[in-house]
Design a protein that fits this description.
With 338 residues, this protein is of the alpha/beta class. It contains seven helices and 15 strands. Strands 3, 4, 5, 8, 9, 10, 11, 12 and 13 form a nine-stranded mixed beta sheet that branches. The longest helix is centred in the first third of the chain and has 20 residues. It binds flavin-adenine dinucleotide. The site of flavin-adenine dinucleotide (FAD) has 40 residues, from helix 1, strand 8, strand 13 and helix 6. This is FAD dependent oxidoreductase domain-containing protein.
Amino acid sequence: MARITIVGSGIVGMATAAMLSRHHKVTIIARNLPGDEPSIDWASPWAGVSFVAGGCTSAREEKMQLDSFTELWRWGEAYPESSIRRVRMEDFYDDDKNPEEVWWKVLPEFRVLPAHVLPKGAKAGTSYTTLVLNPSIFLPWLKQQLEGWGVEFRRMHLNALSDASHLRHDVLINATGIGSKFLSDIADQDVELVRGQTLIVKSDYQKMFMHDNGKDYTYAIPRMDGTVILGGIRQPDSTNPEVDLEISKDIVRRLNADLPNVFSADLAEYDIIGHNVGIRPGRSSGIRIERDLRGGQNIVHVYGFSGGGYIHSFGAARMARDLVEDVLFPLSRSVAKL
Ligand SMILES: Cc1cc2nc3c(=O)[nH]c(=O)nc-3n(C[C@H](O)[C@H](O)[C@H](O)COP(=O)(O)OP(=O)(O)OC[C@H]3O[C@@H](n4cnc5c(N)ncnc54)[C@H](O)[C@@H]3O)c2cc1C
């Protein structure tokens, strides 16, 4: 059994702990922990959360998404208290992708939607059974589950990954999200801070709706508890924690244009429970999952998931686990010959 330290207790750090704790002694250290008052310093508590397949730039990312979907599906079945629920997805887009050839045609009850149901501007749409969850329930629940499996959580703020070297682990996992821009020995300038804003309203709407026109994306995520999350917005290089009501008004105006029989265009007509402002950990050169040897520490980086940390979570965790195994059990020349 090896000793693994994971820096970061967001969805990516905890999914990685779920994979590695089956065989290793895992400690998670983080500045922000599940159950804390939500803070703009980390992304996971602010997410929708829905599983919207797509946005992949490689077969590797498609595999990550499929692996995550499969794992989250299993968890939802085994642990209903996790808040994971199955819902019907209707997903529309304005670009030229062929809906018959998308990777997610393997998802349950997939079908291409007929032209007459497409919202204005959309060229195609697909439907499948997908998953939603509520991070304010899911994250503390997952922490408790991991603790039951022997994972230890410690609050710690690092200025550099080298600050953790005294913990004497075999491998250090870097799952710090936007933190990788600010850790002095990583200082990844490709990390981008992408502001998001949503509102939670009372509603019995029970389908997952998504319309991505390339510039804006408009969505309604049912939490299956009488509330729905309405979004969205991508604002690169903004970290303003204040709610911008003009954005909320624009979100409901867009939703009304797409679903006029369900959502009003007038913000005053909503029973608003709250607003969310969070910063997505983007990365201009893409998701980073790779090995590194720095300051005498064996490191595996797992960050840069932007608006898809949950969508990629368990798939990314499996890849990180494989890299940890490579570090712990390097191929020797004699084994390689077998
Ligand atoms: C409005 C909004 C809606 C979203 N909706 C969805 C959705 O529907 N589906 C989806 O898949 N994704 C969604 N996302 C994106 C998702 O939230 C992120 O991709 C995901 O949370 C990233 O997880 P992470 O674990 O990489 O990082 P984080 O959640 O940011 O966690 C980082 C961890 O590292 C720790 N850390 C950082 N720096 C240090 C340091 N120096 N020392 C010690 N600890 C440190 C932090 O304390 C924290 O524990 C949404 C995001 C927003 C803002």
